[in-house]
Amino acid sequence: MEGIVKGKVQQAIDQFAEKEVFVHLETTNGAYASHFDENAYNVGAFIRNAKVKYEHGKIVGTGGAFRVGLKLDLGWVYAEGVTDYEIDDQGRLLMAGHDREGRLMVALQISEKPFSHESVVQS
Amino acid sequence: MSSQEHVVVIYPHPDDESFGAAGTIASYREKGSPVTYLCGTLGEMGRNMGNPVFANRETLSSFRKEELLKACKALDVDVRMLGYRDKTLEFEQMDQVAGHIQSILEEIEPTLVITHYPGYAVHPDHNALGTAVIEAVSNIEDSHRPELWVQAIATNYEKELGEPDIRHDVKPYWDKKMAAIETHLSQASGMMSLIKEKPDFNENEELEHLRYERFYRWNFTN
Questions:
Q1: Which residues of A touch B59 (CB under 8 A)?
Q2: Which of B85, B161, B93 is nearest to B121 (CA)?
Q3: Is the domain defined by B2-217 classed in CATH 3.40.50.10320?
Q4: Which structural domains are found in chain A, ordered by start?
Q5: Please, are residues A65 and A80 in contact by the beta-carbon 8 Å criterion?
Q6: Which of A67, A25, A85 is nearest to B56 (CA)?
C-alpha cells in the first residue's frame, strides 16, 4: 500500500459506481485493547462481501487521513481515517488507515468479485 | 513412557504457539517427543500488518501462513491448519468444532494436549477454541484420554485460579523461543511494542511472562 493519492483513488471509486460490487468494511482497535490498558474498550466491526451498488462515491480530506463515502439507493457506506491505498493485481481498490506502528485501524475495500483471503485453508 | 509421548498444542493463531509455549515445545522436542501444532485460523483478521506495513487485509493470510510454517520449522514441530476464520471461532457450532478436533486427536493419539484456559485467555478465539478442545478431550474414551494443560493469560488470573500447576522456566530454550517469535515478522514487532506501551509497563514482569510458561492441569471429574 502507499499513501493516498486522492485523484487516483477518486478515479477508482468512479469506476466501480453504478455496478454491483462487493465491499469489505472494517474498523478495529484490536482484541487486546483492554488487556493492555484496562481503561480502553475493545471495539470493532466488520462486514465482508456486502453486495452493494452505489450511485457515486467520494474521497474527501486534506492532509494524512481521508474520509470515503459511497451513496447507496437506501443508505451509505462510510469510512474515516483512511491513510493508504492500493489497486491490487485483481483490480480491487483496497483502502486502509494505519496507526504509527502500522496497525490497521480501518479498512474499506471494493471489488467486482467477492473477497476471499489469499490463503484459504480447507478443513 | 517418553518414547511414546506425543504432545499436541492447539491454539487459534499463528504466533500463539511461539509467545505461549515455544519453550515447553522445545523441551519436549529435546527429549525426542513429537509435537504437533493444530493452528485454528491463519490470523487473517489481525491488525498488525508489519512495521513498516508490508501486508494488507487480503494478503495477510499468506504472510501469516508462511510465518507459521517457518515458526514450526524453527521449533521442529508438525503443523496442521484447521481452516477456521480469525475472529469467528466463537460463532461456530461448538460441538462441530469439538468433533473436528476429537477426530484429529483420535488419529494422533497424543499423551498431552495444550490449549488456552476458557474464560481466562483474553481473545475470544482463544476462549472458544479452548472450550472446544476441553469438550473434545472429555469425549475421548477414558483409556485413551491424554492429559490436558490449559493456559491462562488474563491479567491477575492467579487471584481467581490459584497458582498454576505447571510453571516451566524456559530460560534454557530462550534463544529458540525468541527465534520462533521473530519468524512471525508481521506480528512480532507490533505485539512487542504493544507490551512496551502498556501504561503499567514493567519490563521485568513482561519478561517473566515470556520466561515462565504456566499451565493448569485440567480436571475431568469436575
A1: 118
A2: B161
A3: yes
A4: 1-22+42-49+80-115 (2.70.180.10)
A5: yes
A6: A85
Q: For residues B212 and B174, is the Cβ–Cβ distance under 8 A?
A: no
CA B9, B11, B16: angle at the middle one, nearest 5? 100
DSSP B38-55: EE----TT-SB-TTTT--
Would you write out chain A's pLDDT as a tens digit for each of its 123 residues? 999 999 999 999 999 999 999 999 999 988 787 787 888 889 999 999 999 999 999 999 987 899 999 999 999 999 999 999 999 999 999 999 999 989 999 999 999 999 998 776 544
Asked if A9 contacts A94 with a C-beta cutoff of 8 angstroms, the reply is no
Could you tell me the three cell numbers for B22?
A: 515455544
Interface contact flag, B47 A104, Cβ < 8 Å: yes
Whether B195 has a pLDDT exceeding 80, the answer reads no
- Of A33, A58, A35, residue with least CA distance to A108: A58
Q: Give the residue carrying C-alpha cell 507459521.
A: B68
Chain B residues within 8 Å of chain A (Cβ atoms): 42, 44-45, 47-53, 56-62, 64-65, 81-84, 87, 100, 122-125, 154-155, 189-190, 193-195, 197-199
Cα B138 to Cα A59: distance, rounded to the nearest angstrom: 54
Q: Do B47 and A36 make contact, defined as CB atoms within 8 angstroms?
A: no
Beta bridge mates, A2: A85
B103-110: Cβ within 8 A, 24+ apart: B104/B38, B104/B80, B105/B8, B105/B136, B105/B137, B105/B140, B105/B146, B106/B140, B106/B144, B108/B6, B108/B8, B108/B36, B109/B6, B109/B144, B109/B146, B110/B6, B110/B7, B110/B8, B110/B36, B110/B146
Q: How far apart are CA A100 and CA B47, in angstroms?
A: 12
